[in-house]
């Protein structure tokens, strides 16, 4: 269906171009005096009303299905998708409303569903660093999809949708993951993983707020531990000195509240 639509569009553009040439005098003088639209516009509007409006829903669903196949690693006909989406863009002579309303909205909804499902699986099976690597790779691939066949205006919307599903909605779960969350990365000085986390989250509005809270608690805990160790060490030194002077047993370690 998509290939047939592209072929009919190509044929129609050729016919409209020759129609304008055959009736050049009519197009240039008669229509101008009567304030009528040029034949070129009339030809495209005819294709929009008689063909595009009939197949737009099925075409949009078909394109989204093929995009999901590429996300799963299948080989697809990218030039076919680009030609189809060019129809969505050009059918109204530069007006983007058909591309946005008849394709982009559904595309973004499908993207949200796709990555919501992926996030549910990955959050259970992967460590925090592995999950971030996958999220980073997904964002890179979505940008490539835009560059290959989607309109450039879709990129920011698509990236924000992927970030929302993979990172924003899962922020607390990721940061608190046992053995691999933000606390574990700070504790083990995993600089590369922490840098990756920062690079991804700082691009999201308020994305660093939960990270900052974990970092603040980590510093507080580490500082408290160091103070306690210093106090215990000081106490032990004093008690050993008393022990050697008096010959009595050293006191037990004293734990003070921070």
From TrEMBL:
One of its GO terms (molecular function) is ubiquitin protein ligase binding. Residues 1-237 form the Cullin N-terminal domain. GO terms for biological process: ubiquitin-dependent protein catabolic process. It comes from the Eukaryota. Gene3D superfamilies: Cullin Repeats. Belongs to the cullin family. This is Cullin N-terminal domain-containing protein. The lineage of its organism: Eukaryota, Viridiplantae, Streptophyta, Embryophyta, Tracheophyta.
């Amino acid at each position: 269906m998509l290939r047939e639509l592209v072929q009919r569009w190509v044929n129609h553009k050729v016919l409209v171009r020759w129609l304008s040439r055959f009736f050049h005098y009519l197009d240039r003088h008669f229509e101008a005096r009567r304030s009528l639209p040029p034949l070129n516009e009339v030809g495209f509007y005819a294709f929009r009303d008689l063909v595009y409006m009939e197949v737009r829903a099925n075409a949009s669903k078909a394109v989204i299905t093929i995009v999901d196949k590429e996300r799963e690693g299948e080989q697809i006909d990218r030039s076919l998708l680009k030609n189809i989406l060019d129809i969505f863009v050009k059918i109204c002579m530069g007006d983007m409303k058909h591309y946005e309303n008849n394709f982009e909205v559904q595309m973004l909804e499908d993207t949200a569903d796709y990555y919501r499902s992926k996030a549910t699986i990955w959050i259970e099976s992967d460590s925090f660093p592995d999950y971030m690597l996958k999220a980073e790779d997904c964002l890179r691939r979505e940008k490539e999809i835009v560059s290959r066949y989607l309109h450039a205006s879709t990129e920011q919307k698509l990236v924000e949708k992927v970030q929302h599903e993979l990172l924003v909605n899962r922020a607390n779960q990721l940061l608190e993951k046992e053995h691999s969350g933000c606390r574990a990365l700070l504790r083990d000085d995993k600089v590369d993983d922490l840098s990756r986390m920062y690079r991804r989250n700082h691009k999201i509005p308020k994305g660093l707020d939960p990270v900052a809270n974990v970092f603040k608690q980590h510093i507080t805990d580490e500082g408290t531990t160091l103070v306690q160790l210093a106090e215990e060490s000081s106490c032990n030194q004093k008690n050993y000195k008393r022990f050697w002077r008096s010959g009595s047993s050293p006191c037990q370690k004293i734990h003070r509240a921070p």
